[in-house]
Amino acid sequence: xxxxxxxxxxxxxxxxxxxxxxxxxxxxxxxxxxxxxxxxxxxxxxxxxxxxxxxxxxxxxxxxxxxxxxxxxxxxxxxxxxxxxxxxxxxxxxxxxxxxxxxxx
Length: 105
Hints:
Strand order of the largest sheet: 1-2-3-4-8-7-6-5
Shape: globular
Order of helices and strands: EEEEHEEEE
Distance between the termini: 38 Å
Radius of gyration: 13 Å
Largest sheet: 8 strands, mixed
Number of helices: 1
Low-confidence stretches: 96-105
Structural class: mainly beta
Mean pLDDT: 79
Strand content: over 45%
């Protein structure tokens, strides 16, 4: 699959993590060859925060090295989420391991 509209990029532990604009996926990319080696589906988290407004999309990831987790947010989301990811048996799919909601300040 070809992915377009990569938005926020984070370089973490030798991989590029990128959210896809107007989508609910985060990709894990191998920088040496550009291949997608992991896909995170955040549809449920997006649905929890968007209130059926198509403009309130997933729009931000930031790695927190101290917590070894990612901060996830979106356009007009009332909260930001601290999430940890864990690989599943299918190599390219990752799942949320832990989510903590934090009210935006």
